[in-house]
Amino acid sequence: MTSNREKKRSIKQGVEELRSKTGWDPTSFTAKSSEEQLRDLNQEKRTSTIYDDETDSKCSECLKCRQESGDPTALCETHLTEAMGF
Ligand SMILES: [Zn+2]
Known about the structure:
Elements: H1 2-20, H2 26-47, H3 55-58, H4 60-69, H5 77-83
The chain binds zinc ion.
Zinc ion (ZN) binds near residues 59, 75 and 76.
């Protein structure tokens, strides 16, 4: 019975250790994901607007390129090639 109690205690300790590590702390995890949620929300907004018929507004690769380059007209490789008429 003693070993069982010790096991339980060590599991609890392990969970607390995990929580104290970065990425497992509920507070910092929420802060990270809320930023991502905002990004997703912006993407959803864009896809559900009147620009819906524009192919590049639906493309997550294009959006990624725009975020990375800071250029709102940036296109992913596929759509850049398409835009150039290839
Ligand atoms: Zn694209």
